[in-house]
Amino acid sequence: MTDTQNVKFRLDSADERLWMDDQPVQISNKAFQLLHLFVKNPRRLLTKNQILEAIWPDLCVSEGLVKEYVHDLRSALGDDPKNPRFIETVHGRGYRFLEGIAEFKQSADSVAPKPGAHTPSLIVLPIKNLTDEQRWKRFCSGLSDDLVTDLARYPDFRVIAHNGQTVHFSNGSDGISAGRGSSPQYVLSGSVQASSTKVRVNMRLVETGSDNYLWAERYDRELGEVFDIQSDIVEQVAFAIGGFAGQIPHAERLRLGRKPPEDLHAYELYLLGHELEARFEKQSTLKALELAQRAVHIDPTYARAWLLVGWASWQLSLERGADEPTDYSELARTAFLEAAALDPRDPFAIVELAAVRGGDGDLNGAWDAMERALDLGRNQSELQIVASNTIAIVLDEPAHAIEVLNQGVQRSAVLSDWQQISIARVGYFAREFERAVEYARRSPSNLLSRLFEILSLVQINHTDMIHSLNQTLKANHPDFNPVEFARHYPMGVDAKRLFVSGIEKAGLGKS
Description:
- The chain has 511 residues and is α/β, with parallel strands linked by helices.
- The protein is built from 20 helices and 15 strands.
- Helices cover 51% and strands 14% of the residues.
- Helix 4 (134-151) runs parallel beside helix 5 (226-242) and helix 7 packs parallel to helix 9 (303-317).
- The longest helix has 18 residues, at 134-151.
């Protein structure tokens, strides 16, 4: 636990950041709102209902969610609930803030999330204003700050906001000097131009170790509400740079292809394993699991590597043969719980925590975790698409799942293979069967894509192709057993009923 006795915490209410001395502290948006509420009400008892009404005025969430965010704040502050310095629990009623955190309103210069082992870093330069208008200067400042904030939510690299000092690469372009050690550095820069009717934002990503331009994009928008334009561009850039299929993970995978396996560190093993796991092929998934297990052996505290152990194990559990000695389902469950415990601010880990809790029958706990995940990853399209699966299948709320799914799809410039499989699954359980068929057919041929294509076709009485599709499924996946599949694929009551209905209509066997 952090020793807080000799440090000073400050709350920047203008920039929505918590600082410990001169270092930023990573907390989620909702955790910041809760801490701000506490700071505004020192020495005053705040009941759980008062907190719920203040932080979630338009949502019906359980009191357990307050407890989880208080836990997050205590972890960030190094506060001991048995001997509190900042937040005191008033048992059965609520919480009392004991003071000790100063509030100020001053924009900070940098954000530095907790670095993972051997992770690269991304430096975000201030966006240049190429106009003479003051309002675009403010737009550039807001765009830079929001990019730092959104990119900092991705745990696979560190984010540093630069102070605006101009330096140069060896090729003469504007940039920043960075070390050329074992962990490459990346620089994101951009500029803004505007006319009386349009605004143009140019962005580029450079790898400083080679001065290579990895990515560049131009965003042209009609003039309108400036904040909406800013939010739209930030979401697009953050996804393109930091998503699972983003430019930095892609560049890292290319770099790793030139290194011998014995030199790979935990982060690098995770990247290679994730690429293999995303193929949804059994042999690739087995290799992905091996790499992920090597990663957690090297660094047992690496949450994303534990997530990969869980994802790969879950895939393998769906095709587990009768004589398979490994209980992949239990391995996945253990890995997901470990990932969530190690990094409670990783929204993907918290989504899987929601799925585990839902599968265990703890629906209130599952919803608490899901709300936290959606808050932590509120601008991440990939997170929303992943979360929609759990909401539709485990939590039995297909209408809400479609809302979350559509938000994620609208934010995605390109849909990856695993995202299209996810859309097919959500489409089936939301009874959007035509949509499910469309995206299942867009996906690579694997167990999940072919299975949900078959189930969706029979639900809309398109049975002419079912026999041949069934034969292909059984030939390619001889260990597939609907009963075992349903056992390892947590489903709510309604979802399970719909799944069984499709299996029986398709003649794949009774479950």
